[in-house]
Specification:
Helix content: 55-70%
Number of strands: 3
Largest sheet: 3 strands, antiparallel
Order of helices and strands: HHEHHEEH
Strand content: 5-15%
Oligomer: single chain
Length: 126
């Protein structure tokens, strides 16, 4: 069975975003646009991971350019969890394991499109 929840959430978020733009408003969520840290955490949590594994994954996928302190990571995890973009999916001993939700995946898609648009503005500008 195919899970369309990410696509549906993306469509709803994108529809609301376009409606707000058409009314002269912009999407006013306190976490948007995503910070670099939030991007990396959401990207890392496309698979279930505990906090320390998230830190290791981010260091790896950023080619060592992003090294999160534990306090930064756990504060961000608390915010992302509070907004429903990640959720605990189990425990690994004493450690909580988190994963991105369908809403979090939809937010990543909105942000990806925003960044792709910005990057497209560089093309042909030299």
């Amino acid at each position: 069975m195919v899970d369309y929840s990410v696509e549906l959430n993306y469509i709803i978020i994108k529809f609301n975003y376009i409606a707000e733009l058409n009314r002269g408003e912009c999407m006013k969520h306190k976490l948007l646009p995503l910070s670099e840290t939030m991007h990396y955490i959401l990207l890392a949590l496309r698979e279930p991971l505990h906090g320390y594994a998230v830190m290791q994954k981010i260091e790896k996928i950023s080619n060592g350019t992003v090294i999160l302190a534990a306090g930064t990571l756990y504060g961000a995890i608390e915010n992302l969890s509070k907004h429903g973009w990640i959720e605990p999916v189990g425990d690994s001993g004493r450690r909580k394991v988190y994963m991105i939700t369908s809403e979090g995946s939809a937010i990543l898609k909105v942000e990806q499109n925003r960044l792709l648009h910005i990057l497209s503005l560089y093309e042909g500008s030299e």
